[in-house]
Each structure stands twice: as C-alpha cells, then as structure tokens.
Amino acid sequence: MSELLQFLLSGVTVGAVYALVALGFTIIYNASDVVNFAQGEFVMLGGMITVMAYTAGAPLPLAALVAILVTAALGVAMNKLAIEPARGAPVVSLVIITIGASIFIRGAAQLIFGKQIHSFPAFSGDDPFRILEATILPQSLWVIGGAVAVFIGLWLFFTRTLLGRAVLATSNNRLAAQLVGINTPFVMTLSFALSAGIGALAGVLVTPITMTSYDVGLAFALKGFAAAMLGGMGNPKGALVGGFVLGVLEGLTAGYISSQYKDAAAFIVILGVLFFLPQGLFGRKSTDRV
Amino acid sequence: MRLTAKSATLLGLVVLIALAPLFFPSGFYYRVGALIFVNALAVTGIVILTGWAGQISLGHAGFAGIGAYACALAPVHWGIHPALAVLLGAAVSAILAWLVGRPILRLKGYYLAVASLGMGILISMVLNNERELTRGPDGIDVPDLGMRALLKAAGLDLSNGEFWYFFCGIALVIGAWLALNLHDSPTGRALRALHGSEIAARTVGIDVAKLKLQAFVISAIYASVSGSLLALQNKFITPDVAGFMHSVEMVTMAVLGGVGSVAGAIFGAAVLTLLPQVLTVFAEYEQLVLGLVMVLVMIFLREGVVPSILRKIRGRGE
Lengths: 290, 318
Hints:
The complex is a heterodimer.
Chain A: H1 2-32, H2 39-55, H3 60-83, H4 91-113, E1 129-131, E2 134-136, H5 138-160, H6 162-172, H7 174-179, H8 184-210, H9 217-231, H10 236-257, H11 264-276
Antiparallel strand pairs in A: 1-2
Chain B: H1 5-19, H2 28-52, H3 60-78, H4 82-105, H5 111-129, H6 131-134, E1 140-141, H7 147-153, H8 160-184, H9 186-196, H10 198-203, H11 208-234, E2 236-237, H12 244-257, H13 262-278, H14 282-300, H15 305-314
Antiparallel strand pairs in B: 1-2
C-alpha cells in the first residue's frame, strides 16, 4: 500500500511537468494550428539557463526569472524567424520547421552548455515530508503547485481579460479576429512567449529533482504531446488532466513493470488514445467541419 | 527521343555509380559511396511517405534498427542465412508499420510524427536494454553475407569496399526504380492527389487512409533494408542505428534534396553523408547544421534543392 502511494506521488510530480508542457503545446496549437515540436526544448532551456545563471553567481530566484524571460524571448524569436516567414506553407512544412528548430536548439545547447548533466539545489531543501507511509520532496510540491497555478492563471487570463479573449478569438477564426481589429501578429507573439515561458518554468521547477542535460527536451516533447492528446488537443483542462494521468501511468509502470521501460507509457497512451478515443478525454466531437 | 523524368533519373544514377570510381583517389571512397547509397535508399522511402503521402515519420530509424538487428540476430539464433534475414527484417518492419500506422492514419492531422517518434524511441530502448539478446549499447557482430566469396569463386575478385559499393549501388538503383514506378502507377497518382487535397481525393473515391498506410509500410521496408545493408557491410552494429538522430538525418536528407523527388533524395543523402567525411569538426555541429538546414530549406526552397534547380533550368513549372 505504501509502495503504491509512493509510486502515485512520484507519478503526480512528473505528471505536473507533463501538464505544463502540454499546456504550452495547447497555447501555440490553439493560436496557430502549429504542433510545436520544440516545446520540450523550452523545458531544457529553462533548466539549463537557470543552471548557468546560478553558477555565475545569481541568486536562485533571479536565475530562474532570467531563464524564463530568456526562453520566452527565444520562443518569440523562433516564431518571428522560422514560423512567420513560412505562413501559408502546408502544415507538413511547418511541422518540419518546428522539428528543425528543436534540433537546432539542441545542437546549440550542446555547444554552449556541454554534454554534462546539470542541476541546482531544491528551492526549499531536501527534507521529505511524510504522507501516510510515503514521502514527498518539497520540490515536488513546488512542481505540482506550479502546474496548478499556471493552469488557474491561464484560465483567468483567457476568460477574464480582453487580451486573453483576443487570443481565443484568433484561435477560433483568424480572419474574423483581424476584421474586428485584433492584432493577430501580436497574439502570435504573445502565444509563443507564454508557451515558451511556461515550458521554461517547468524546466526550472523539475531540474532539482530530475536534473537536466542538453538532450532532455525530446522526451518532454513526446510526453507533453501524449498528455495533450490524452486530454484532447487544444483543450487546456484536458492538458492538465492528461499530464497528471500520464505521469501516474508512468509512475506505476516504473514501479510495477520496469523503470527502464517507463518511457513506453507515453507511447502506449498515444496509440491507445488514437485507437479508442481520438478526440481525447475532453475533446469536442467532430471538430473538423468542412 | 525525349527521356522521361523517370528514365533520366535512373540513367543518371547508373552512370554516376558506374563512373564515380574512376575518380576515387583511394579505396576509402568506395566505403563513403556505399554509405551514401544506403542512406539514399532509406531517404527514397521518406520521399514516398513525406513527399507523396504528406506524412512525417520521426521514427524511421527504428525500422532501420529492426533491419540491422535482424541480420545480426537471425543468423546466429535461428540459423537463417543473412540474405533471408534481410527479408525477415523487412517483413517485421512492414508488420510493425502496419500495426502502428493503421489506427493513426485514419485520422486527419500529423499524429504519425508523434506516434512514430514514440515508436522509434521504444525500439532503440529495447535494443539498448535487452542486453542478453542485443548485447546493449556496445553493439553486436553481424555475420558475413557470403556473397563476396561466391563472386570470387565465380572468378570476380572484388575488394570488400568495391563489393559493397556496387552491391549497395545496385540496391539503390532497384529501390529508385521501384519508387519511380510507384510514382507513375495508379497508386502513385492517387498518393499525389491526396497530397494535393485530401478532400478532393476522397471525393473521387480514393481510400485516403489505406493509401497513407501503404506509403508508411513501403517506406518502412526501405528503411529496414537500408539498415540491413548497413549492418552487413560494417559486420557490426550498435543501437545508434535506431536512434532519434538517425531518424532526423533521414528527414533532413529528404528535405534538403527535395522531399518530393527521388533524385533529390539521393542528392540530399550524398551531401549530408559526405559532409561529416569532409569536415571532421562536423560531428560537433551536426545537430545545429541539420536543424538549420531543415528550417532554411522549408522557408526559402520549399521544394528542396534539386527540384528548385531543375525548375530554374527548365524555366517552367512541372
């Protein structure tokens, strides 16, 4: 029993990270229909830049802030330099561009940060809390709290602010949004900044637990995507739930089947979703109308 | 007599393969040539999948891994001749592609990219972890194909490099010929119609899902055979053959040369195979360069280098 609880707790922790990545996917997907394969690289950059700033002597909160802002700026640059120039290209081309951008970021990170594994200290120490017979690290609470906070923040932003509604309008119908005076290029910029920033935040929160290196982005992208699909592509609530469900499945796989094959959980989820519920848990029925 | 694009491509390829050795300064270039042909074969499969059917796979190296390890394992464990192991690998790859592709390709969108990414990672995970069978990350020996000895007995004595150069060259010509035939067949026309407009294709009665699945299975077979040839000529293979970067290399080669053209695929494979041989520092910058190539080609030369140049020369559309 304590074993199960322990696996669930560690599953929920990684699940929170996947939820954050999935939320990032969702924002860009909604604003532009682009499936951004570079989403995982934002997570890597968040962790890596924090490491760099921290070892350069910045206090941890400042280092984290710098990492999030720099990554957000890189997200905007990616949109301006790679996605916008290809507007109107077939979706295949856009997918290839985001894959290319992701490999490029990996390569650059390898040159700048090296191939070593990096980490920095946890925010509130390493003394675990006891819950019944299981333990949880304070950093795990930071991760879970971060995911929930980001979700609530996004929800308020999209439902309560004019700007947030402008983003929603653009995702519903770009042309109509333009016609009513919404600055759609700015909405795109904003979406990439938000999405990259959220990815970086995930990287900052999880690095003290899992550590980071230049090549961790790929796995995060795959799992964030699996989480987004499980919840229903484009649905923020689905992204959150999908992330937690995937994390728990992975935790249980690692605990009861094989820790070497825990990454297979994401793949099984993707196939399972495509087989049995292509719209995901919270997706609308028949979203494609011709 | 005017040459069709198909016979021009094939003729050019045969002439190139036959004449290139005249300019080789050393035996080493036979090996580079053979590597180019092996990569070009896999990339030809990507052209069928991405260029014609409009789907992206980020896990094709997984099929290459299956082809390669079939040649390493089947002869040792089940006493199957390496040549038959190539077929076995291709069959396993085709079945796996069918199983993975069937649920996914019924849906609109680009789910194949993600699912194949997961599949590729899983295959390379198995190859790395099942040490008892695959010997893990250190790699495994691959038995000799035995063809060279046969040729020697028949009076044709080729060096190892020469043999694999011509063997892989012939394999590539056959692969390109089959792909070009497919291009002009009803299936190929249907594929291109589907790439143009899925709705229009469906309206004229094309079974879109089935066609995409066919393209995925065929391209998996190309990748598998390419992996087998790589394993057989190196007589050694590591799980890297199934790694994510190998999948990315395949896609980049196709994108660079021209994802819709077999000639482009061969060009792209040649450039990106030669680059690391010419520039030794390339290894460090590989990811940077591959990523940049993908983005730049997609923005500035969307059809790829070869079709863009051909268009300039002819001065008209296709």
